[in-house]
Amino acid sequence: MKTILIIEDERAISRVLKVYLEKAKYEVVQAFDGDEAVHLLQTMQPSLVLLDVMLPGRDGWDLLNYIRERSACPVIMLTALGQTQQKLMGLNQGADDYITKPFVAEEVVARVNAVLRRSTPMAVHPQAKVFGHLKVDFKAHLITLHGVELTLTPRDLSLLLFLAQHPNQLFTREQLIECVWGLDYEGSDRAVDLAIKRIRQSLIHWPATQGEIRTMRGLGYQFCVYEPR
Q: Would you state the pLDDT for residue 122?
């Protein structure tokens, strides 16, 4: 499930967008000022950002620059400013689209769909990835650390393979259950926590300088990998 970050200080507008985007099967996270948005952007990797220009604290232009310095995440600007010059400014600074208020929520959803279609490349998954001393062979369903095969239950193995296929991406418990174990899974979502605990134990000798499975409190889990310096 793709995650949309709405950065909008008008709570009524944010609530309406959240309802329509969730109806379109998106996960939605909300921020109501620039500082809150920066905190979220430091702890998650949204699929797309809906960004209001006029915000308390850091404004939309500042946040757009902040995002562009760190990622190619698609950004759609939301603003009451309808002048052509303002639209060109946003597009020239790296925005992917620009919607002027007042708008129809269905139009925003359609624009989100269109921008994501344009920005999502065809998935080409390698057969194996190496993260320092950790090697993950997706084709053979084999994971080795320092050349020694890890012994994992099928469920834990499938979870680690999925996380390794998506390094540095944040997933909620619900997303992991849906993507890894399937919608017909009937157990508690706490099973994800227990599986992560067992996986971490198996990775105890993986150097912390190379990577880790990080808990984002209240948000989910992230398979973090670090580039060598």
A: 46
Return the closest-CA partner of residue 8 out of 46, 27, 36: 36
Q: Where does 128-225 sit in CATH, by number? A: 1.10.10.10
Q: What is the CATH number of domain 3-119?
A: 3.40.50.2300
Could you tell me the CA-to-CA distances from 28 to 4, 20, 62, 130, 183 in Å, in that order? 5, 10, 22, 32, 20
* Those residues with Cβ within 8 angstroms of residue 102's Cβ, 6 or more apart along the chain or in another chain: none
What are the residue ranges spanned by the domains of the chain? 3-119, 128-225
User: Which two three-digit tokens encode residue 166?
Assistant: 């998506």
Strands (E), 45-176: 48-52, 75-79, 97-100, 128-131, 134-137, 142-145, 148-149, 170-171
CA dihedral 199, 201, 203, 209 (to 10 degrees): 120
Q: Nearest 5°: phi and psi at 211?
A: 170, 175
The tokens for 190 are 């706490």
> What's the pLDDT tens digit per position in 106-160?
989 998 998 888 765 544 556 889 999 999 998 888 999 999 999 888 888 989 9
Q: Each residue of 68-118: pLDDT tens digit? A: 888 878 899 998 766 556 666 666 677 888 888 888 999 899 989 988 887
